[in-house]
TrEMBL record:
InterPro entries: Aldolase_TIM, DUS-like_FMN-bd. Its main location: cytoplasm. Residues 476-491 have a biased composition (Polar residues). This is tRNA-dihydrouridine(16/17) synthase [NAD(P)(+)]-like. The keyword NADP applies. Residues 446-466 have a biased composition (Basic and acidic residues). GO terms for cellular component: cytoplasm; nucleus. It comes from Salvelinus namaycush (Lake trout). Pfam families: DUF702, Dus.
Amino acid sequence: MAVKLQGFEFWKTTLRGARYVVAPMVDQSELAWRLLSRRHGAELCYTPMLHAQVFVRDANYRKDNLYSEVCPEDRPLITQFCANDPEVFVQACLLAQDYCDAIDLNLGCPQMIAKRGHYGVFLQDEWELLEKMVKLANEKISVPITCKIRVFNKMEDTVQYAQMLEKAGCQLLTVHGRTKDQKGPATGIASWEHIKAVRNAVNIPVFANGNIQHLSDVEQCMEETGVQGVMSAEGNLHNPALFEGLSPPVWEMAEEYLEVVSQYPPCTLSYVRAHLFKLWHHTLQIHKDLREELAKVKNLQGLTEVSRQLRLRCQEEITNGGEEAGQVVGLPFPHWICQPYVRPVPKDPVANGNGTEVKAVCHKRALSQEDSDGASDALSKNKQKKKARNPHKNFCPEQKPKYIKCEQCGNPKGNQCVFNLCRGCCKKKAYKEVADCPSHGLRFKTKAEKQKSEREEEEGKSRGLQEEEDGGLLNGTLSTPTDPHRGQTVS
């Protein structure tokens, strides 16, 4: 068994001293995007965050998200898991370790799904659990264990947190310089001071994450914090050539990405669509009809065609517009150039007549021009899409049919169920009582009676054969046939 490298030796040898890193992004850092990023300067990539428990339980999940994406050009590669159970985390690591160069524990996801699932940044106060998870993984698996964290408000808490993970066996630490509350509209600025404090306090490589929009930001961050590498997420999504220091036309990146997707199938269509929305973000604010078209198409050819139409429109603007073509207020470059997306500052609360503050209301974008009447303005975007597919669909709660509830669980009961239950409860009851429910297609009683009848028929046949054998044996013993020629002399 090869010796497992640690700390700086692991970073210099296995990760080849990587400085430019593409972040783990759910449904976004898939194989095709990683390969595109590597072509344009990325030196290390992470897989999307994978759920350790599902990875252990589901062979198809393993195949779709890691095993089928093995590619010699896609190295070095770190696989990231979210987990909250040491044993499950180690099992997932053991299943993944032969397909990557290290395993990363996600301790930075701030989304609501992470809060509900009790993982990501919502474990950052459970140091005893985290220490056990990292220590056990470091002891059991054959590749190094790394961690990605967010900072605490207090710098000393962040430093102690990082030191605890290092002591437990973490061999490389990525520090996102934002707290768990800095997300969405409240994302704000990442604290490089926190990252610098961690770098000075630990003896393992540190990657910085946050505030990276251009290559100049990468260089400035490394100079100010002293980190070994810099990780980019949103900056990379809007400009895959960020680490080259280039800002190419969007259509060049889009066409190259679509080419990679076609070379390395299968790639989930929703991933491809999301990447095109990110790349064409600024242009789609202008050509809104193509934005709607991009959201509706059902296959890769359709996405490719929408991207081609966007390119043609941009090139037409360049031809007709002269030096001012494509200039948009607030953007440093024409809208068809790859450039970062800067989130708007959250609106201040509005005071009402009583002197109390109320939150500003965000109105959803109408699905299309035809649907932007008063009735559909009250619908969510998803409901508007459903109504576009089925104009007769009714979303009014008062007019929806009322369903009688199941007596046991509260779900709608079957209309003709003999037990007045939903199918799940009916199945359990019918199985227990060996009964039928024609409404739900359950035939436990019928099957039992059929099996009983078949058994009785088999037993009857067996008894008949036995009686025949017994009767034949009895006759042979009691009545021996007489030879009519017995005692006669043959001449």
